[in-house]
Specification:
single chain, mainly beta, Lipocalin, ten-stranded antiparallel sheet, 10 strands
Length: 149
């Protein structure tokens, strides 16, 4: 895979009230490997704000850390079989998040990298949703297709 990539991120939340909430974003970013870990770097823009949040995804075969810096400041640790707590800082206040990770799956073939995470999300110690994140990174020049599950 090349350094310059297109990154598709799809998030799906399954709520208690039987409703589903799905979001998807596609942006250009960078991919690299260092000291046995793989990294995806990209900027994320929030509606109504000029300054982006800088995102770093560091991952290996059974864990992923997502660090956001800027308008949103957080480090989310997704470790298979573990629950992690963190402070999620936004322009509107701070929320305590709990992430109970069930599975982290990574596969890479040629110019495509797939990362799938299943977890339970809590906010201020209350259940919010069962969630999935699906990340597909492809070398620039390749089009991110539907993210694989």
């Amino acid at each position: 895979m090349t350094k310059d990539v297109m990154i598709s991120i799809r998030g799906l939340q399954f709520m208690d009230d039987d409703s589903d909430d799905e979001i998807e974003t596609v942006q250009r970013g960078q991919y690299y490997e260092k000291n046995g870990s793989r990294f995806l770097l990209f900027d994320e823009y929030m509606e109504g704000f000029q300054e982006p949040a800088k995102n770093i995804m560091r991952f290996n075969d059974n864990e992923m850390t997502l660090t956001k810096r800027g308008l949103i400041n957080v480090q989310l640790d997704f470790e298979e079989g573990k629950k992690n707590l963190t402070s999620y800082r936004t322009p509107f206040g701070v929320i305590m998040l709990g992430v109970d990770t069930h599975s982290v799956q990574v596969s890479e073939t040629g110019d495509e990298l797939l990362l799938n995470i299943e977890y339970t999300l809590e906010a201020d110690y209350q259940f919010v949703a069962d969630c999935r994140i699906a990340v597909c990174a492809k070398s620039v020049g390749q089009r991110p297709e539907e993210v694989h599950e």
